Amino acid sequence: MATGADVRDILELGGVESENTGTINKKDIINSDKKKSKKSSETLTFKRPEGMHREVYALLYSDKKDAPPLLPSDTTQGYRTVKAKLGSKKVRPWKWMPFTNPARKDGAMFYHWRRAAEEGKDYPFARFNKTVQVPVYSEQEYQMYLHDDAWTKAETDHLFDLARRFDLRFVVIHDRYDHQQFKKRSVEDLKERYYHICAKLANIRAAPGTDLKIPVFDAGHERRRKEQLERLYNRTPEQVAEEEYLIQELRKIETRKKEREKRTQDLQKLITAADTTTEQRRAERKAPKKKLPQKKETEKPAVPETAGIKFPDFKSAGVTLRSQRMKLPSSVGQKKIKALEQMLMELGVDLNPMPTEEIVQMFNELRSDLVLLYELKQAFANCEYELQMLRHRYEALAKAGSIGPLTAEAAHPDGQAGLGIEEVKGDTKDQIIDVVGAPLTPNSVRRKVVGAEQGALRSPTQMP
Predict the structure, then answer these.
(1) What are the residues facing 98 on neighbouring strands?
(2) CA-wise closest residue to 122 among 97, 156, 151, 148
(3) What is the C-alpha to C-alpha distance for residues 429 and 393, in angstroms, rounded to an integer?
(4) How much is the pLDDT for 249?
(5) pLDDT value at residue 455
(6) For residue 404, what are the CA distances in angstroms to 226, 396, 400?
């Protein structure tokens, strides 16, 4: 017979009064939800300690405060399936049985474990036994098509027999070849004879009109390849170091050649830009004299496309300040900007003039011409430095006796007579530039470069 405690346990009721009396009251039934909420709120909540990872804490406590499982389990129902389903089915019997390998011709018997249902079946790994199909020729075919004075029929038969035994592994065939009974042959000789016979038999036995893929073996090429490989392998450390040094020198020569070509192209661009700018200025000066009345009607305020600096053209809709057209573009480097400011200060020109339409146009043209002048000065200084360096190299080679000595006219400092040497001995000059090192020291080279840069910063009135 159930007691009041059993009923309270079933209904999940609790309390001091009901526990003391042992009977169920009306309050116990009505206030059961409140007691459950109080009971759940009174349960202890554990916080994860600082420094402990979430995965480690999950092993200690779960949402239901259950203990962690002793064995790993996977209760998720997804695309994964259990690999081994252990059930109450009957286990398939295995049996220790003999087997033979079809790849062996000696009839050797081996034993292994196998399922009883597979007894009597072929060895499963026999399908991997792949053999090379070596052609077979008859006596008549050999006498008509395959006869060779350097090879006897017995020697050819011995070669094809070894090819069948060792699956065309010609290194093994050469090792097992009977050099005592037959003539000593190399691996290339064996390959050449074998593939020559295969090609002959394929041509003889092929049906007319069929496209054949005949194997071709170039024995001469293979011999040369092995000779080169042997020479490469037998090099001394000194030869390897010399080859590496020559490769590095070749790369330096190619790099210097590309740099020289690039400098020549840049110099040609500067000269072309200077000529084009001069012609444009002359054309602009002559045009207003002929068309003075129509100047205000036809002329539109626009920034001219100069060769030194390409100023941005503000053609977008909206209000813009005229002073924005005087701002230097980001393509002009800081070095050029400082040189430009220095030249403007030496000329007495304000760095930020009043941005009227005419002043903006003329100021941008002036700065563009000054930048072009600065670049031409730099190119001229570099050319002078390179010419002087070539003279030093030429003098060093002349002292060594490989080239004739310089004349007085060729050594003139203005460089006019030096150009004749370059025209007469242009090929020799290219070789000197690429191969021979400059006799100048690094400090003298540095002084030359600094002097060239300082000369480029001179005022336009001091232009040579």
Answers:
(1) 111
(2) 97
(3) 10
(4) 95
(5) 53
(6) 47, 11, 10
* Cα–Cα distance, 460 to 281 (Å, whole number): 18
Q: Which 3 state secondary structure label does DSSP give 403?
A: coil
73: region left, alpha or beta (phi > 0 left; psi from -120 to 50 alpha): beta
Token readout for 309 is 């600096």
What values do phi and psi take at 186, rounded to 5? -95, 170
DSSP classification of residue 151: B
The tally of CA atoms less than 13 A away on the side-chain side of residue 96 is 1
Q: Which of 127, 137, 188, 181 is nearest to 161 (CA)?
A: 137
CA distance 308 to 327: 14
Rounded distance, CA 432 to CA 410, Å?
Answer: 17
Mean pLDDT in order along the chain per 10 residues (464 residues): 70 57 59 55 66 79 60 61 66 91 85 90 86 89 90 93 92 93 92 93 85 85 94 94 95 92 83 76 64 43 50 68 77 82 85 83 84 85 88 87 57 44 42 41 47 50 43
DSSP 8-state class, residue 146 = I
Q: What is the pLDDT of residue 251?
A: 95
DSSP 6-50: HHHHHHT---HHHHHH-S--HHHHHTHHHHHHHHHHTS--PPPPT
pLDDT score of 234: 94
Name the pTM for this structure: 0.41
Structure tokens at 351: 């760095």
Over its C-alpha atoms, the chain yields an Rg (Å, rounded) of 49
Give the C-alpha distances (Å, rounded to integers) separating 186 from 42, 171, 174, 216, 222: 95, 10, 7, 18, 11
| The amino acid at 139 | E
3-state helix, strand, coil in the chain (%, to 5): 55, 5, 40
Q: How far apart are CA 249 and CA 243, in angstroms?
A: 10
Tokens 């084009």 locate to: 276
How far is Cα 30 from Cα 460, in angstroms, rounded to an integer? Answer: 107
Q: How many Cα atoms are found within 13 Å in the side-chain-facing hemisphere of 86?
A: 0
Q: What is the spatial distance between Cα 14 and Cα 20, in angstroms, rounded to a whole number?
A: 10
Per-residue pLDDT, 48: 79
Query: How far is residue 29's CA from residue 454's CA, in Å, rounded to a whole number?
Result: 104
Contact indicator for 182, 161 with CB cutoff of 8 Å? no
**Tokens at 71, concatenated:** 């064995």
DSSP state for residue 148 in the 8-state scheme: B
